[in-house]
Amino acid sequence: MSRDQRRGERHERRSSFRCGHCRLDVSTDALGTAHRNHCTNCLWSRHLDDSPGDRAADCGSLMEPIAITVRGDGEWVIVHRCRGCAELHLNRTAGDDNPLMLLRLAVKPLAQPPFPMERIGHL
């Protein structure tokens, strides 16, 4: 099979995919996004897109959810870092994403600060 044929297969819209991290079967239909490529349970993704929905990335590696950012309109967005090429991507959250996992990402900087908390008292 040629590279162009494989790329064409990538563009086919599937109704579900299996998460490469937790192995859950995930529906591609989601409230709030038209191009879901992250797991509703663990929030991990795959490096599939160069631009949202184009499915043109050649990497294909797992993308770890590393943070949450909030857009000006209040929409939460997941920040993913590719385990293969270290590229960062922003992915819209979906209505059926695991709220506990979203909150864990949001409070991660407080739970695991990048500096020793005891140093704050010395400032």
Question: What does the model show?
Answer:
- The protein is of the alpha+beta class.
- The protein has one domain (about 5-110).
- Helices cover about 20% and strands about 25% of the residues.
- The strands form two sheets. It has a four-stranded antiparallel β-sheet with strand order 3-4-5-6, with helices on one face. A two-stranded antiparallel ribbon has the order 1-2.
- It is globular and about 55 Å long.
- The protein starts with a helix and ends in a 12-residue tail after the last helix.
Order of helices and strands: HEEEEEEH
Strand content: 15-25%
Largest sheet, spatial ordering of strands: 3-4-5-6
Biggest pleated sheet: 4 strands, antiparallel
Low-confidence stretches are none
Average pLDDT number: 85
C-alpha termini separation: 62 Å
Using the alpha-carbon principal axes, give the shape.
globular
By secondary-structure content and strand pairing, the structural class works out as alpha+beta
The number of domains is 1
The overall strand count is: 6
User: What's the Cα radius of gyration?
Assistant: 17 Å
- The helicity comes to 10-25%
Briefly characterize the structure.
With 123 residues, this protein is of the alpha+beta class. The protein is 18% helix and 24% strand.
Topology:
Layout lengths: L2 H9 L4 E3 L6 E3 L17 E2 L15 E9 L5 E7 L5 E5 L6 H13 L12
Antiparallel strand pairs: 1-2, 3-4, 4-5, 5-6
Name a few traits of the molecule:
single chain, 123 residues, alpha+beta, four-stranded antiparallel β-sheet, two-stranded antiparallel sheet, 6 strands, 24% strand, globular
